[in-house]
């Protein structure tokens, strides 16, 4: 992207201003004011991980519908790829991304520790479920998607009775060549899930898994596709994607495991050098607001705010056994685990 | 003549004393060339030898590479894969080449269709087609196999070493076909007839006479296939990861996970570059070897009568064409109209939604398609102009060090695409140029990567042209530039247009060079395909692929119309 002179002056001026001011949280006066300022910027670029590209595009369209005149550039990828691209952007001094929503909270923490995130206290901060509030005391990032990861199975070839009920059931030799997982070296969801499996059942879990020759995709969403196609019969995949696929007529269903559904909380953050800072703030409000919750609910997700009706077949958080990763597991566990995983599975 | 020549030369010399803008232009071009080729390539060696933290000179990166068994396994897997791919491509290409070139087999034109089709099919689309066809449990071929035989074990498994090699071979066999046919075409039939007179049948004749004569060309092509395979990223990313078969290119990309280990990536790439240089050197020696019998078109050529064998050959070529073009294209087209790819294409499963999504709803896809076409157009144009200019300057020795110029123009061929991408990233992404995320960086990378193709084709065109034509312009007072624009370019316009189309097609599907250079603004279809494939969105991918195939096939069809069908087959 060529930087023209005006943009350069504006950017340097903004940098100078932000350097002069103490790092105070930017509290928006009102949504209307934000919208006016965002309209002048015209667009917002959203690096997004914990949704399929279709759902993410739908969310972008819903934002533009709610705030005409502000376009959303959706860049969907797995967590590691998003973080790699963002770091490439940063190390080359190119500011592309306004808002990052990632399934790996360690990435948000890392960016914050490098002073790369803007501090912003959303107006809608306290409208979400209590457990999703205030994950960062400094308001550098906020939970905007909470995605359950459960067992999925192919309903054409596996009966509900035979389907796995808990995670170790996936290791049954009867699933040899027919169990699907994602890769923690690419996917944030798989990273969290794998960290919990290692904690609950030790690394033996993965060594046993390696013996029954799993199909390893890159994204956790790939698990849903391969299972729906019958390429694999069972797997560990994101619940919402599986239910979307089932609603399209694919033979796939979800089991909420008895030993716990892994819920992955994905934070959103505004980049400190966001090229469209006001649109970014407005978009952050949108992620906490009712319109986004409706998009999430319509795509079989569990919205993070109350009062939004769930789609058929979606189990609310308070009716499932939830397990989540600790901060330490997220920061230190996943990188180490990804290496271990590569050694065990050879890829 | 004898009298005039010195005068003319004197006038030429006199004119040369004035400022010759052509020379200035060519001097500028050579600076561009140095900038394009030397700057990124030196990065490879400087970075691989520098310490990630201090930047000091070190061999530590290489020590790190050889001390991790997973890295070494990746090299070993790459060699296995390349060997398997070579074996399969020979199996596909040689009988076809021999049949087309030396026999009276019917339907030879149809074979060109297969070869050109295999060439147009982007490797990542072929890979997706074959995942849909030969996935061990849900692939269509295996579903049909199970339905017919009742056996649960899959007939074919794309997620394996041989599956991967098979898919790659279906994409690269045209290289062997082209080299083998062009060598076989030059063998005079007299030698084969001599063998026949002495009682040898067609098979024995081919084995004893034709094949040995064409062997250097075939071996040269084998080396190219080997190199293509070790450098390929798209197909392994789609197939090798589920197959749990780590190869060098999939390993290379992991160095880019945060924190990026660029130095390690460079060190890991150096052996690949050396292997490439050695094999290319060997290939040149082979092709230069003194095989007198294939040196000219002098001898008469009679197609060999092979009787019933021709039906066998016809069947072989048809099978290869079906595997390489018809089946993948058909499965892509049918998938692009389906709601759920693994379900039978019944009425309730048919939809136009995938096309509606990519053409009207998903802005990402639309942008990537526009980018792809725009970048390919610009890169093809720049590459042809640059290739032609360098070829002309080097062939006519307009500048000192013409040999260096031509060596520079072909140097990028020695670097695998994905390694080149890392070099471009190191050279252009950051300050002072800060081109990361722009269209310019992708176009620059494409131009550099495909310059060797443009250069070699243009050089053979220029060499075929008698310099007297240009001298006539100079003698009559025209400038070198005028000679170039009004004489050389028009005479060579067909071959220049051929080069342009060739580069356009290759750019439109290039994945590895774009790997580390694209951000959200400058994504191309190939990169988007990789992004979408990680979610298994085969229906959308198929629709995108069909649109891409329609665009490139149209360009190729127009090209064949205008300049004859063999323009794409003349690359070497």
TrEMBL record, chain A:
Domain of life of the source: Bacteria
Keyword Disulfide bond applies: no
The species this protein was found in: Acuticoccus sediminis
Presence of the UniProt keyword Plastid in the record: no
Keywords (A to Z) from UniProt: Signal
Name this protein carries in UniProt: ABC transporter substrate-binding protein
PROSITE patterns reported in the protein's UniProt record: TAT
Signal peptide positions (record): 1-27
């Amino acid at each position: 992207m060529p930087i023209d002179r005006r943009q350069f002056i504006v950017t340097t001026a903004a940098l100078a201003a932000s350097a002069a001011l103490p790092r105070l949280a930017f509290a928006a006066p009102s949504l209307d004011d934000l919208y006016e300022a965002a309209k002048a910027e015209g667009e917002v670029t959203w690096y997004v991980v914990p949704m399929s590209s279709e759902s993410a595009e739908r969310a972008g369209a819903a934002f533009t519908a709610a705030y005409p005149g502000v376009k959303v550039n959706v860049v969907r990828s797995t967590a590691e790829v998003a973080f790699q691209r963002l770091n490439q952007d940063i190390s080359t001094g190119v500011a592309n991304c306004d808002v990052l929503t990632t399934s790996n909270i360690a990435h948000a923490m890392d960016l914050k520790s490098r002073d790369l995130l803007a501090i912003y206290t959303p107006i809608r901060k306290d409208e979400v479920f209590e457990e999703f509030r205030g994950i960062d005391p400094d308001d550098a990032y906020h939970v905007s998607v909470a995605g359950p990861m459960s067992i999925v199975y192919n309903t054409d070839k596996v009966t509900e009775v035979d389907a796995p009920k808990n995670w170790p059931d996936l290791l049954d030799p009867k699933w040899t060549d027919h169990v699907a997982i994602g890769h923690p070296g690419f996917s944030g969801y798989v990273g969290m899930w794998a960290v919990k499996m290692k904690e609950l059942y030790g690394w033996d879990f993965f060594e046993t898994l390696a013996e029954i020759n799993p199909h390893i995709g890159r994204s956790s969403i790939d698990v849903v596709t391969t299972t729906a196609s019958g390429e694999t019969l069972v797997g560990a995949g994101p619940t919402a994607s599986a239910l979307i696929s089932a609603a399209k007529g694919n033979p796939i269903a979800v089991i909420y495991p008895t030993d716990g559904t892994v819920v992955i909380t994905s934070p959103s953050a505004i980049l400190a050098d966001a090229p469209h800072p006001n649109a970014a703030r407005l978009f952050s409000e949108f992620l906490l607001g009712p319109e986004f919750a409706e998009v999430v609910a319509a795509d079989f997700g569990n919205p993070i705010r109350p009062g939004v009706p769930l789609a058929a077949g979606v189990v609310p958080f308070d009716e499932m056994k939830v397990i989540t990763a600790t901060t330490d597991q997220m920061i230190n566990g996943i990188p180490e685990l990804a290496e271990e995983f590569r050694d065990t599975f050879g890829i | 003549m004898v009298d005039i020549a010195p005068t003319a030369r004197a006038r030429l010399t006199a004119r040369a004393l004035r400022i010759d803008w052509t020379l200035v232009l060519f001097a500028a071009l050579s600076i561009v060339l140095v900038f394009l080729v030397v700057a990124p390539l030196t990065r490879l060696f400087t970075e691989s030898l520098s310490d990630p933290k201090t930047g000091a000179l070190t061999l530590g990166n290489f020590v790190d590479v050889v001390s991790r068994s997973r890295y070494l396994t990746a090299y070993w897997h790459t060699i296995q894969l390349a060997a398997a791919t070579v074996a399969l491509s020979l199996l596909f290409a040689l009988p076809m080449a021999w049949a087309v070139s030396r026999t009276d087999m019917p339907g030879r034109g149809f074979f060109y269709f297969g070869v050109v089709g295999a060439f147009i099919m982007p490797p990542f689309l072929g890979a997706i087609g074959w995942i849909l066809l030969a996935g061990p449990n849900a692939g269509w071929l295996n579903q049909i196999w199970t339905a017919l035989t009742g056996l649960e074990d899959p007939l074919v498994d794309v997620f394996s070493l041989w599956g991967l090699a098979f898919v790659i071979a279906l994409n690269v066999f045209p290289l062997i076909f082209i080299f083998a046919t062009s060598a076989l075409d030059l063998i005079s039939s007299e030698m084969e007839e001599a063998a026949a007179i002495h009682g040898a049948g067609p098979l024995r004749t081919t084995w004893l006479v034709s094949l040995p004569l064409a062997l250097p060309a075939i071996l040269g092509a084998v080396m190219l296939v080997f190199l293509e395979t070790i450098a390929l990223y798209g197909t392994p990313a789609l197939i090798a990861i589920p197959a749990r078969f780590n190869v060098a290119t999939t390993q290379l990309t992991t160095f880019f996970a945060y924190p990026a280990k660029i130095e390690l990536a460079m060190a890991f790439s150096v052996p690949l570059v050396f292997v490439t240089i050695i094999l290319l050197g060997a290939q040149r020696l082979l092709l230069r070897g003194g095989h007198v019998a294939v040196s000219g078109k002098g001898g008469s050529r009679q197609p060999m009568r092979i009787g019933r064998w021709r039906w066998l050959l016809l069947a072989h070529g048809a099978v290869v064409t079906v595997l390489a073009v018809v089946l993948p294209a058909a499965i892509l087209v049918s998938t692009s109209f389906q709601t759920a790819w693994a379900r039978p294409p019944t009425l309730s499963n048919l939809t136009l939604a995938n096309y509606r999504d990519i053409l009207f709803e998903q802005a990402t896809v639309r942008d990537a398609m526009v980018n792809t076409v725009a970048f390919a157009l610009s890169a093809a144009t720049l590459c042809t102009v640059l290739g032609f200019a360098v070829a002309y300057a080097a062939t006519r020795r307009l500048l000192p060090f013409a040999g260096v110029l031509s060596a520079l123009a072909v140097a990028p061929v020695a670097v695998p695409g994905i390694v080149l991408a890392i070099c471009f990233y190191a050279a252009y992404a950051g300050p002072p140029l800060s081109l990361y995320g722009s269209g310019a960086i992708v176009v620059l990378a494409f131009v550099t990567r495909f310059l060797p193709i443009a250069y070699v084709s243009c050089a053979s065109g220029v060499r075929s042209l008698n310099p007297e034509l240009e001298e006539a312009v100079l003698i009559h007072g025209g400038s070198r530039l005028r000679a170039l624009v009004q004489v050389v370019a028009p005479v060579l316009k067909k071959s220049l247009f051929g080069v342009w189309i060739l580069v356009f097609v290759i750019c439109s599907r290039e994945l590895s060079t774009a790997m580390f250079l694209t951000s959200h603004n400058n994504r191309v279809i190939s990169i988007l395909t990789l992004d979408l494939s990680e979610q298994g969105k085969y229906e959308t991918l198929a629709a995108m692929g069909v649109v891409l195939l329609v665009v490139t096939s149209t360009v190729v069809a127009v090209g064949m119309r205008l300049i004859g069908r063999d323009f794409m087959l003349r690359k070497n």
